[in-house]
Amino acid sequence: MMKQNFYFLMILTTILCTISGCQLAATGSSGEGELVGYYITATSISDRADENGKIYAEAAENGKETTYTFPGIDGVPFCNLSAGNGTIASVSSPHDTAVQEKHIIWSLDGKKENVNLEGTIYISTEIGYYTCHKNPMYQDGKGALYLVPAEGPSAQMDREGTVLTITDSATTTETQSGKAFEKVVHVQLHIVAKAPSDHVVWSQMSADNRQLSRVEYSADQVPETLTPDAGTDFLIVEAYQQGQLAGRTLYQRADSTISTFQLQPGGWFDALYTGILWK
User: Which residue, of 71, 118, 154, 206, has the greatest Cβ tally within 10 A?
Assistant: First the structure.
């Protein structure tokens, strides 16, 4: 399965962001937790928290890579973890492809560092009235990762394209050599309602709109790669649910992957990626 990449934009000027939602604040040393993202779950997980209201992740190190997991908690991680020079840190989950259109924007303004994390997750219109269990994630100065069970906003999500946006921000202040350094983290996740599909139809099309080939796949059994036939100018991917057309997407030669959305028991969609090997 191909992994969708994060996009990094480094800007050495001040970025002003207008956000809505809960504003979190924390000040002190690096030993306190820093907001790093969300861990979306289908239901409340408050019964898993310790006496301090936290759920700590388990960490596994493999060379210069550290992988965190929350055993027994099915959810979608959306985060940007801190790691030392030359090391990689990530949260492992079966649903690591659920978040789409992920962006990290980093900027530095004097003694103030800004990190903006934004993404999109799709949920089924069959859910109807939806309550987001966002569970903000934090990382302390020693690298320990934990989440705080929390319920976000609710909305009626039974119509395709309905958007529910959750946003949090946090500021941490760290003192180094007698100087104060501030870090501001903004996290924004768009939750978009999408009609589910049980199978997809891929059509290879010529430049004069002739259908060169047509193939049907179950929504959870699409191939990892596709090599279009000679003469194929573009692709049309149609999603169907119980015989009814649920969506149609056009893929051109500038596109390198096809995204197929597989509905999960939690109500969100994991993405399956198919690489397009144009001739």
Answer: 118
User: What is the Cα Rg of the chain in Å?
Assistant: 21
DSSP 3-state of 11: strand
For residues 214 and 206, is the Cβ–Cβ distance under 8 A?
A: no
Give phi and psi for 190, each to the nearest 5.
-95, 125
Are β-strands 269-276 and 225-226 bridged in parallel, bridged antiparallel, or unpaired? parallel
Pairing status of strand 99-109 against strand 7-11? parallel
Kindly give the residue spans of alpha helices, DSSP state H, lying in 74-216.
none
In order, the DSSP letters of 208-258 are: TS-EEEEEEEETT---SEE-PPTT--EEEEEEEETTEEEEEEEE-TT--EE
Average pLDDT over residues 3-27: 30
Q: Both tokens of residue 5?
A: 């990449």
Q: 3-class SS at 165? A: strand
pLDDT tens digits, one per residue of 193-203 = 999 998 999 99
Q: What is the DSSP string of 80-102?
A: -----TT-EEEE--TTTTSEEEE
* 83 within 8 A of 151, measured Cβ to Cβ: no
**How many helical (H) and strand (E) elements, i.e. helices and strands, does the chain have?**
0, 23
Calpha distance 75→41 (Å, rounded): 5
Q: Which of the 8 DSSP states describes residue 61? A: E
> What is d(CA 235, CA 251) in angstroms, rounded to the nearest whole number?
5
Q: Measure the CA–CA gap between 218 and 135, rounded to whole angstroms.
A: 33
Residue appearing with tokens 């990094």: 8
- What is the Cα–Cα distance from 246 to 63, expressed in whole angstroms? 45
Q: What is the pLDDT of residues 223-246, one digit of tens each?
A: 999 999 999 999 999 999 888 998
